[in-house]
Design brief:
Layout (H helix, E strand, L loop, with lengths): L8 E4 L2 E4 L10 H16 L17 H16 L11 H7 L1 H11 L5 H8 L5 H29 L1 H20 L4 H29 L5 H22 L9 H8 L1 H10 L7 H6 L3 H12 L1 H14 L10 H6 L3 H16 L2 H14 L4 H22 L5 H24 L5 H22 L1 H10 L5 H30 L1 H22 L8 H11 L3
Antiparallel strand pairs: 1-2
Helix pairs in contact: 2-14, 4-8, 4-9, 4-11, 6-7, 6-8, 6-22, 7-8, 7-10, 7-11, 8-9, 8-21, 8-22, 9-18, 9-21, 13-14, 14-24, 16-22, 16-23, 17-18, 17-22, 18-20, 19-20, 19-23, 22-23
Pfam family, one: Sugar_tr
InterPro entries: GLUT, MFS_dom, MFS_sugar_transport-like, MFS_trans_sf, Sugar/inositol_transpt, Sugar_transporter_CS
Subcellular location: Cell membrane
Length: about 525
């Protein structure tokens, strides 16, 4: 028998390992199987278990020999230390301008909504006030439908720049609006940009981040959204004392949107997108820039075993909804749906109104909501790559359910009872904190990890579209439902959805912390029925 290669020395620590030539020409079948299992087991564990392996040529093709030799050399050539996170950090920070703008535009009408309604002539009409909030979300739904196709056609960087344009134009129209129609038009345009941006941001951060800090970088998205929301709430404080201040609030949002378009010119393109376009040399150069030399070569080899250039543009919507990828898309869409049905964006959009009804100054309420959101996001940042995605989701949704119980108990007590006040306000702040720990940041990070590379951008677009639809109806109907149902039944409904989310996550979500995107995809392939 001829050996797979000439005698190969592998240095692990200071001990050399030599693959010796077989002494028998026709080893027994059961021994051959043992040798194969030993070799490929060592490769999967990156040679962590020191075994010698021998595979007869008769059992593998010449292509398999070359592939396995390449994989072996890649495993041995990879740096033992994790690739540095500092190289990719600037690119991630630029991408987080998008979630910052998302948070800002969600919160920008929170405090000024009453003043806007007075100035534009629809004060007291809760449905029209709801439209001012929800029209932005309707635009986001429309933009989101096209985000996956835009990201695959023109690349992640150009998609960022394209989403900045309607955000600048829409904010300017809102700032100069003379009536409700102008305000709704501007909010719709802003929404189309927000629909394209967040899915692309999740894709981009996932695809350029080293595996060991991908969860941490994913948490940056939630923290940026938190900063955007806090910024909008703080900037809106003078709205009652300075005439026309709400117009300044919209003008301010044009600054970060313009910065996004400019700074993206200096950022790296996604190496995964470059590889799928057949631009392998550019992809490897970008990986070296983001991860370092040896890690780049290993990642390119992994990409060659999972990705196939040119396939991304062949995926059709019907394949996502009814084909072999339908189950994983269903999981992603349901996760985003449950996130919104928990009622979190009703809190972010209408916290001023709700707190005023409870007798709390809205300025204090808004600051408290922002602080709770920031604390929860910081906890998620620290735990995402330690505790894991699934555990954070379970703790988050269960904690949110408990918080809705506190709010329901508050409604059962007399309004003059101090306990009712503390339960209501404390329950809402804890609700926001628990959301920021897991239900907020995890879906946007987890879904790009579990979606196969071929469908990643378009599957994110479909899942985020579900997010925006439900976000729209929650924003549109929350005040009306609060008036019709009362706070007790409404918060009970939100709590039920949180408990449903706990069951769903327990049964359907897998853990992805510390794994490369290629490892996750390979791990899912044998288990996936689709």
């Amino acid at each position: 028998m001829v050996c797979l290669a000439t005698p190969l020395f592998v240095h692990i620590g200071s001990q050399p390992f030599r693959r010796r030539e077989a002494k028998q020409e026709n080893p027994a079948p059961h021994k051959r199987r043992e040798a194969e299992v030993g070799m490929f087991g060592d490769l999967r564990r990156s040679l962590s278990v020191h075994k010698r392996a021998m595979v007869p040529r008769a059992y593998i093709s010449s292509n398999d020999i070359e592939d396995n030799a390449d994989l072996l050399r890649s495993s041995l050539g990879r740096d033992t230390a994790s690739p540095t996170w500092k190289l990719s950090l600037p690119h991630v920070l630029v991408a987080t301008i998008v979630p910052f703008l998302f948070g800002y535009h969600i919160g920008v009408v929170n405090e000024p909504l009453e003043t806007i309604s007075v100035d534009l002539g629809f004060h007291g009409n809760t449905l029209q006030e709801g439209f001012v909030v929800s029209t932005c979300l309707a635009g986001a739904f429309v933009g989101c439908l096209f985000s996956g196709w835009i990201a695959d056609e023109v690349g992640r960087r150009r998609a960022f720049q394209l989403c900045a344009l309607p955000m600048v134009m829409g904010a300017a129209i809102c700032a100069t609006a003379k009536n409700l129609t102008g305000m709704l038009l501007g909010r719709f345009l802003v929404g189309t940009g927000l629909g394209v941006g967040p899915p692309v941001a999740s894709l981009y951060v996932t695809e350029i981040s080293p595996a060991h800090v991908r969860g941490t970088y994913g948490s940056f998205i939630q923290i940026a959204s938190c900063f955007g929301l806090m910024g909008a709430l703080l900037i809106g404080i003078p709205v009652r004392s300075i005439f026309g201040w709400w117009r300044i609030c919209f003008w301010i949002s044009t600054i970060p949107a313009s910065m996004l378009a400019l700074l993206m010119m200096f950022c790296a393109e996604s190496p995964h997108w470059l590889y799928k376009q057949g631009r392998n040399v550019e992809a490897e150069a970008v990986l070296e820039k983001l991860l370092g030399g040896s890690e780049a070569k290993a990642t390119i080899l992994e990409l060659s075993n999972t990705d196939r250039g040119g396939e991304a543009n062949t995926i059709k919507l019907i394949e996502l909804l009814c084909g072999r990828h339908s189950r994983v898309v269903f999981i992603g869409s349901t996760l985003f749906a449950l996130q919104q049905l928990s009622g979190i964006n009703a809190v972010f959009c209408f916290s001023s109104t709700v707190f005023r009804r409870a007798g709390v100054f809205s300025d204090l309420a808004n600051i408290s909501v922002g602080i709770a959101n920031f604390i929860g996001s910081t906890i998620a940042l620290a735990l995402m790559d330690k505790l894991g995605r699934k555990a954070l989701l379970l703790c988050s949704f269960f904690g949110m359910a408990v918080c809705t119980v506190l709010q329901v108990l508050a409604t059962a007590l007399s309004a003059s009872n101090p306990t009712a006040f503390y339960l209501s306000v404390g329950g809402m702040l804890l609700f926001v904190l628990m959301y920021a720990v897991g239900a907020g940041p995890v879906p946007g990070l987890l879904l790009p990890e579990i979606f196969p590379s071929r469908i990643r951008a378009k599957a994110m677009a479909v899942s985020m579209a579900v997010h925006w639809v439900l976000n729209f109806f929650v924003g549109l109907l929350f005040l009306r439902l609060l008036d019709v149902m009362g706070p007790g039944p409404l918060y009970s409904m939100f709590g039920a959805f949180c408990l449903l989310a706990v069951v769903f996550v327990k049964r359907n979500v897998l853990e992805t912390k510390g794994k490369s995107l290629q490892e996750i995809e390979i791990a899912l392939l044998p288990q996936s029925p689709f």
